[in-house]
Amino acid sequence: MKELVKDPVERKQKNASPLPYHGWVGPCEQVSLFDTIHTLATQMEELNKLVWLMLIDSYGLEEESLKMIYKTLVRMMKYMSPSPGEYKSGLHSHTDKPVSTLICEDQISGLEVEVNDSQWIMLSNLSPSSFIFVVGDPLKAWSNGRLKSVNHRVMMSGDKDRYSIAAFVIPNEGTIIKTPKEFIYDQHPRLFKDFDFMDFFHFAFSDLEKLIDSGE
Fold first, then answer.
1. What does the pLDDT look like over 12-38, one tens digit per residue?
2. Count of domains in the chain?
3. CA dist 200 to 128, 142, 146, Å?
4. What is the pTM for the complete model shown?
């Protein structure tokens, strides 16, 4: 992974995908690496399915209530260490736009989540075999607000680069995010209208959405 991300920026720009979250598409000649990545992606997809089944079971719902055709998009990310004594942003605060995300980190801390009163907590001292499951905005809408898509960011300090791998769940074109009827009743009315995932996904990365976020 470290060798792959060392490729020159110019080469990465030539192979960059215009689609949100897709980033740089690596060189196909590194077949052995991509075999490894494919195996990892398959395993992360299975783990994501298991978490979804646990969520469905905890709410007493049928498996069909969270069933969709999707692809698992795997990204490898490198965060550069800051200058000595600095504490800087490696990734701005945001909520995830895919349905859900699984993150596998190295042993360099940096991922922070926002809790009550705008306090940030760093996730640290995780075991090398740990995975972090992140609820995306669509999953929050599916649950009618029961599941929270928390703000998170990466903050860097120290003298070591940070590496992580993330697997994003991206539903196919035409997928409608719909709240199950079991989540809607008098004490908990509908909070979100049904929506087309891909329309939401593209809007989330549009100039209009950025303008709304900025408050202008």
1. 555 666 666 555 555 555 556 777 888
2. 1
3. 34, 14, 20
4. 0.83
